[in-house]
Amino acid sequence: MKSLRPLVAALAAFAALNGAAQAQTADWPAKPITMIVPYAPGGFADTRVRLLARKLGESLGQPIVVENKAGAGGVVGTNLIAKAAPDGYTIGTGNLAPMAVNPSLMKEMPYDPLKDLAPVILIENSPLVLSVNNELPVKTLADLIAMARKQPGKLSFGSSGVGGAHHLSGEMFREQAKIDIVHVPYKGGSLAATDLMGGHISMMFEMGYSALPAIQGKKIHPIAVTSAQRLAVLPDVPTMAESGLPGFESYNWQGIVAPAGTPAPIIAKLNAELNRILKEADVQKAIADTGSQAGGGTPEEFGAFIKSETAKWAHVIKAGNIQLQ
After folding, report:
1. Where are the domain boundaries for CATH 3.40.190.10 in the chain?
2. pTM score > 0.90 for this model?
3. Nearest CA to 257 among 125, 114, 109?
4. Would you give per-residue pLDDT tens digits along the chain (325 residues)?
5. Which CATH architecture has domain 127-225?
6. By three-state DSSP, how is residue 291 classified?
7. Which of 104, 169, 270, 294 pairs as cysteine with 205 (C-beta 3.0–4.6 A)?
8. C-beta of residue 234 within 8 angstroms of C-beta of residue 222
């Protein structure tokens, strides 16, 4: 009979390591946590996170240090999150492009969003508003589609660049409405928005928070929103689905992710604290005031959402033969 000593020694070593890991998890967090944002300061992906980071730090008893690591459409910062030690001391934001679009748009990726990152929670969904310039003689989505069909290749839509939420929403509109419209990419959403107001492009799918001032100033005309329900800040603007394109939903979203392998108790604690914070009145108001919708839910729900978004945009990218220039 073979000696059981090697097996007993292995089990003892495993128990010791497991005990040490549990003790480390129980003490978490014992030092500041780094929150990586894969975009520049001051934008959509940064502003909200700083509010949540401050509140999360207060509830955990350790500061959350926000670090902006922009580059390559969010890939640089997201890769840093994926490659960080899975100990709960490095987390970050998981956004539409680097999590669900770039895997289909880029030929090579330094990480696999579904394998190398652990979903924590969806922070917010930010629907887009489809608006037309004031010179275009349309009032509804049906009017716009009819005009596009009568004048194939004549109407244009602007975007902040290839592969962004503005662009992909336009491509999905093109496909679902079966119309021929021309994509005009700009080096930034603000440049496209300026040309929309000036009548140089026909239409644009624009983020709610950036479109609101122009809409309220009657410099552009909103046709529809890309969310499942109407927005509180634009209650009279119907959804794309209401307007004749059932199932049309498009968001620029972000959530919190951690390196794959981060202990489940840490993921659960982060999720619980952030779910609580997202329900606070000032956070709800800050999100709603910019035309966005608060997230929440379980890590598993966020993971399923990422998978569904990846599949949706992969289809749009393939159908539109979209390639980075």
Report:
1. 127-225
2. no
3. 114
4. 445 565 555 555 555 445 444 545 789 999 999 999 999 998 877 888 999 999 999 999 999 999 999 998 899 999 999 999 999 999 999 999 999 999 999 989 999 999 999 999 999 999 999 999 999 999 999 999 999 999 999 999 999 999 999 999 999 999 999 999 999 999 888 999 999 999 999 999 999 888 999 999 999 999 999 999 999 899 999 999 999 999 999 999 999 999 999 999 999 999 999 999 999 999 999 999 888 999 999 999 999 999 999 999 999 999 999 988 6
5. 3-Layer(aba) Sandwich (3.40)
6. coil
7. 169
8. yes
